[in-house]
Every structure is written in C-alpha cells, then in structure tokens.
Design goal:
signal, alpha/beta, 50% helix, TIM Barrel, ACMSD, 8 strands, Amidohydro-rel, lyase, eight-stranded parallel β-sheet
C-alpha cells in the first residue's frame, strides 16, 4: 500500500491561536487542520512481558493462558514496543500522532513493589519516545493503583516533569474498583494535575470470570466491556462524581456499551428512589441522574468500533466535543480504522469531523 500524502497544514497558525487562547494547547504546539490523532494506542516495554510470563508460570489461570498465546509471540512484543514498526504503520496510513498507553492488564496484576517499579520504568521509556518524536507521540502515565499514594506521586511526576497528557488505568486492580475510598489519592491527584483518566477494560476479576471463560468471551469479544461498564456503573452509583465533580474519564470502544444503557439506568434509579429503596439496597443518593454524569464527566473514543451507527449515536447523545478517534493499535488494523474515519468525514459536518479526528484530543490531553 502506498504512503498517503501528509496533511495540508494551511491555516494552522489561526487554529493554534484559537486553542491557545483557551489554554488548551501546550506551549510550542499547533493545531493543524487535517491532523489525525489516535488516542488509545497500546504500548509495553520488553520487561513487562518478561515479568508477566514469570507470573504466568507461578500462577496459571485462564487469563494467563489466554495472554501467553500473545505474549510468547515475538511479533506481538515488537508491535507493542518497537517504535520504528509503529511509525512505519502510522506513515503508511496517514496517522499524525499516537497517544501511547500501557497495554492491559498492565502493571496492576503485579504485587505492589514490582508494579510500582514497572510503572516508573514504562513512563521513563514513553517519555524518551516523546522526547525523540514530540510531534508524533504523546503519553498517558502508567500507575500501580495497588499502591495509591505512590501512584498519586507518579501522576504528579509524569504530568509536571515528564509532560504526559493523562493517566491510564486498566480498570480493576486485583478485584478492586475506583469507587473504593482507598483510591482517593489517585483521583484527587488526577484532578490537581488536570489529568484525564483513560479507564481501559481488562479481564473480569476472579469473582466473576467463570461465566466468561467459555467461547472466548473473557477478552475483548465480550468480557472486557462487561467488566469496564460495571466499573463505571459502580463509580457513578457510589457518588464518585459528586465527590469529585471535576474528574474526567475517557472510555474506549464507544463507551463500553454504556451509552445505549443510560436511559434504562436513569429509569431504574428513579424507580428505586421513588419507592424509598436506596437505603435498603445500600445505594447512595445522587445529585444528578446517572446519564448526566456520563455526559459531563466522560469522553468516549472509537477504538475497535469502526462502525458508523454507534458513532452517530454517541455524537448525538454526548455531543461532538466528547467523542475522539482511536485505533487500538496493534490489536486493530490501522487501515480499517482510517477507512472508517474517512467514511465518517464524508457524512459529518467539517467542524464535527475536525473535533473527532484531532480537536477534542488536543483540548482534553492538551496536545
């Protein structure tokens, strides 16, 4: 396949001035008409694979057997860690920037000390890549939530010293979710640093995984979205966004199925509230309806969902300022995602397409 021509950059200065006036763009950066930013692009250093395979030998399970099928293949390791392979793929398809984030399940599966160490090493490696290619890569900080105070310190370091754009959390941490008060230091530091949290799915925890182990259901086919949507529902219903109204969460895969379910969630919450059932069911009174938190505290990306109907639905439901383009490289093919984006360009208003392809990412991640 021939390399696509680079994007037309005419008018970049005017667009940059507009974004800079709102504080959305980092010093020295430009908003470029036609720019394409992919916002959920997996990365992993070599040591991560080495440590995970050691863990898999010690603790064999359905999940470790599942991941060993991938992690023992040299090509998978190269695609996730080799920047030259990544750049060649980006150039071939006309992608200007990848926002790099630690692949799932990431460092959250390890014990506290090793997870924290691997998080720091991963962030140092991503930071070195960004320094070499500042126009091509941005990064989301890897943290080990199993050590909340250390994780908060790493958010602070990555955002204030290394120039990262947000945080990646690969959903539950050894069966614990972000509604747990123990994770408050992480949420508070993310707010202080104006760091959106990309909540990426992972395999269902041990307490619920058995029903997903048949038919290949426990991974991205179904278990990922089931796990992550449950995580988000816990956060909303527990009052996380009443306690932290400035917290911003990014969800991939067109919102992990939640946009379709919000009306039902509102309906059932109101029904329980009217019947006086919140306290008996251990529920928290909320200041707003569940769907209102989703519209004010969440942004969704298109990763792995190269289909126009859910894109149109999310744009209508959430508004064009809360949907971003993503590929899910290397687990999805860049050509498929770019074909989907170019089809969307034909039908969307120019301003909406520009927000989808790069504008919202520039604003939210301060690129």
């Amino acid at each position: 396949m021939s390399t696509l021509k680079r994007r037309d950059f005419l008018g970049a200065s005017a667009a940059a001035a507009l974004l800079a006036s709102s504080g959305a763009v980092r010093a020295g950066s430009q908003s470029q008409p036609g720019r394409i930013i992919a916002t959920e692009e997996a990365f992993a250093p070599k040591r991560y694979f080495q440590e995970y395979l050691k863990l898999a030998e010690r603790n064999e399970s359905m999940v470790t057997r599942y991941l060993k099928m991938y992690y023992e293949k040299p090509q998978v390791v190269k695609q996730l860690g080799d920047i030259d392979i990544r750049l060649e793929d980006m150039d071939r398809h006309g992608v200007d920037m990848h926002v790099l984030s630690m692949t799932a399940p990431g460092v959250q599966v390890f014990e506290e000390a090793l997870g924290t160490e691997l998080a720091i090493e991963t962030n140092e490696e991503i930071a070195s890549i960004i320094k070499r290619y500042p126009q091509r890569f941005a990064g989301l900080a890897t943290i080990a939530p199993q050590a909340p105070e250390k994780a908060a310190a790493e958010i602070r370091r990555c955002m204030s010293e290394l120039g990262f754009s947000g945080v990646i959390i690969n959903s539950h941490t050894q069966g614990e979710f972000l509604d747990n008060p123990k994770f408050a230091p992480i949420l508070e530091e993310a707010i202080r640093q104006q760091a959106p949290i990309y909540l990426h799915p992972t395999f269902p925890p041990d307490t619920m995984i058995e029903a997903y182990t048949d038919y290949g259901m426990m991974g991205a086919l179904w278990g990922f979205q089931a796990e992550c949507s449950m995580h988000v529902t816990r956060m909303i219903l527990s009052g996380v966004f009443d306690r932290y109204p400035e917290l911003q969460i990014v969800l991939g895969h067109m919102g992990e199925g939640l946009p379709y379910w919000l009306g039902r969630m509102d309906n059932r919450y109101q029904n329980i509230l009217r019947r006086g059932g919140l306290k008996p069911l251990g529920m928290t009174p909320l200041k707003k309806l569940p769907s209102e938190y989703f519209r004010s505290n969440f942004t969704v990306t298109t990763s792995g969902m190269n289909w126009q109907p859910p894109l149109n639905y999310c744009l209508d439901l959430m508004g064009p300022d809360r949907v971003m383009f993503a590929i899910d490289f290397p687990f999805e093919r860049t050509g498929d995602a770019m074909g989907f984006l170019m089809d969307a360009k034909k039908t969307l208003p120019t301003k909406v397409y520009e927000q989808l392809s790069h504008g919202n990412a520039e604003r939210l991640f301060r690129l």
